[in-house]
Amino acid sequence: MDFQVQAMDGALRAGRCDLPRGGFQTPVFMPVGTRATVKALGPEDLEAIGAGIILSNAYHLYLRPGADIIERLGGVQRFMGWDRLVLTDSGGYQIFSLKELRKIRDDGVEFKSIVDGSAHFMTPEDNMRLQRALGSDIVMAFDVCPGADAPREEVVRALELTTAWLRRCAAVELQPHQRLFGIVQGGLDKSLRRRSAEELIALDLPGYAIGGLSVGESQEQMLEIAEYTAALLPPHKPRYLMGVGMPLDIVRAAAVGIDMFDCVLPTRMARNGTVFTPTGRLTIRAGACKDDPRPIQEDCPCPACRRFSRAYIRHLFNAGEIMGPRLATLHNLTFYATMMHHMREAALQGRFAQWQHDFETSYQSGG
Amino acid sequence: MDFQVQAMDGALRAGRCDLPRGGFQTPVFMPVGTRATVKALGPEDLEAIGAGIILSNAYHLYLRPGADIIERLGGVQRFMGWDRLVLTDSGGYQIFSLKELRKIRDDGVEFKSIVDGSAHFMTPEDNMRLQRALGSDIVMAFDVCPGADAPREEVVRALELTTAWLRRCAAVELQPHQRLFGIVQGGLDKSLRRRSAEELIALDLPGYAIGGLSVGESQEQMLEIAEYTAALLPPHKPRYLMGVGMPLDIVRAAAVGIDMFDCVLPTRMARNGTVFTPTGRLTIRAGACKDDPRPIQEDCPCPACRRFSRAYIRHLFNAGEIMGPRLATLHNLTFYATMMHHMREAALQGRFAQWQHDFETSYQSGG
């Protein structure tokens, strides 16, 4: 894994990450394709948006259609017709979110399938073999993620298991093109974050993620821990803040040194009819859009804004037509990609602080 | 309206239809976009498939979003971002299908909105003004369509009202680019079909449709009436068989002299996971597709077949993902467009009978 920081502007890093099968520029937002499809879009749509890497979820693909099928069909990229990079999340977070349906043991986790109720047991080794079969480019460790309101003893146990399991993950041989990222835990406690980071860094992995944030804490707390933890991580390796977030979360987290992001919100909100613009969010179903001939965003290069009015897209949503969610998703991911690109360009030109000020002022103006 | 028959092979006609804003070759299948969207596809998808004309429904657009909104936004084409041709059905068939919710009077029809239950009354003149506001290229008459099991007196009344209403429709001035088609009724009774055709032909309209078929009768009955009626219609004008149909219906109806077709089945069946191939239908959810690396159809140029396996598309359907219906729709409309193209090419080369034999043999072979 080759990661180059091309410029720093404050703590913001404009970088480039190259892997055996492709690369991407940072800061980067990775569209989420949990079940080997970014909902409502195809690979050619993602290429047009300029995505170099997308995210999928090993746990979801394990449940359906099953890793054996994907392996037989040549891995997750070939399965979904995508020839750029894929990062697979281990699914640790999703399994631990099952609450009543799972039990964490020292050697792995027991859980019930959300698809058919069947009982499963998964060890860190099992999860690595699963991601090896899927053949993704970046493999996330099988970690333990406590909730924002977890008592300290639970946060400590999650941290300790995460470190122990990461050692076990790292001992499993992956495919030659695959790279394993560790995930720093420790909740909102800086001393625990430091301990987790130090234990993980000792394993000298290709990249590090910050987990256990965006689970219910305030944006202020999230940014404080992200900044603190980012500063502990090796400067020559990419830093990935998992599950974050809304546009201002991402801009502010990139500003404290985060390189990689993912979040379901831009795609999920699109399907519910909420789109992003430089002056804030727009509810496309709102009566104000009824006969509005303007595109969602005047200067946006996305297929929705090049060809359709707000009035038409509102009609699609009101009539329950599939093209409504599709057009809104195309727009929101284009908005995110453009935002990442602008951030990077500003950093390369040493004017990020001004860009951030202008972006935040406009975004919070409400049009 | 300029309609040229370029070649005849038996009764099959290879033709070309030119209107002020565009043209299309015949025989043609018009994808159905009832609510100003061909479900799951955008205009650029339809362009790639080679569609020159699509169908929309004046009645549905009247209910939602309303003709005033579409008119203010520049007409139905501009509203939906489509710069080729649109045929609008009057919605007569849809209104008469409401059964308990409508009442046919001599001067028009009373009905309740399926959107909000509100009461409406629509005359033939109202319907023409509606389609004038929508600005479509081909305007269908406001007709009365009896069911396949309707008693003779009901079929006669529908015929008489259809003629009377067509005279009233023809008296309403449309936009200069718009062309009105009449709709022959008369059920399964040849003498009534002859009477209806003669009354309508007297009005010398740019084109004629055959209505009241594909409403529950057998394919044999449908083809017999289509053939009989087609032979009554002016040879230098396009003939449109409304609501037909499945691939073998279309091939056989084109063979007896029909030029234009529309049907919701290829798009509706796609959304339910049924796709068409040269060897018949395929249920993509079937277990046999579980790990099948082949595309839906080996030699198909559609975006689904160029990039995805049956196994992947099955996964999308099983996971309830939007891309499943979208890919299946892209395929089915490509299958139909290819079938129409092949029929036309065969007719131009005087080998339609052989082509039809080969197509039907393969289609009925079941792979």
Summarize the structure.
Chain A has helices at residues 43-49, 58-63, 67-72, 76-80, 92-96, 124-134, 152-170, 190-201, 219-232, 247-255, 265-271, 303-307, 310-318, 323-348, 352-363; strands at 2-9, 12-19, 22-26, 28-30, 53-57, 85-89, 102-105, 108-112, 119-122, 138-140, 179-184, 207-210, 239-241, 260-262, 274-277, 280-283.
Physical arrangement of strands within the biggest beta sheet of chain A: 4-14-13-12-11-10-6-5
Largest interface: A-B, 38 and 38 residues
Task: Give the full name of the CATH homologous superfamily of the largest domain in chain A.
Answer: Queuine tRNA-ribosyltransferase-like
Structural class designation of chain A: alpha/beta
On the 0 to 100 scale, the average pLDDT of chain A is: 97
User: What Rg of chain A, in angstroms, do the CA atoms define?
Assistant: 20 Å
The main pleated sheet of chain A reads as: 8 strands, parallel
- Which CATH class of the largest domain in chain A is shown? Alpha Beta
Low-confidence stretches of chain A: none
Can you give the helix content of chain A as a percent range?
40-55%
Strand content of chain A: 15-25%
* Distance between the ends of chain A: 42 Å
Number of domains of chain A: 2
Helix count from the secondary structure assignment of chain A: 15
Overall morphology of chain A: globular
What is the CATH topology assignment of the largest domain in chain A? TIM Barrel
Question: What CATH architecture label of the largest domain in chain A applies?
Answer: Alpha-Beta Barrel
Number of strands of chain A: 16
**Quaternary status:** homodimer
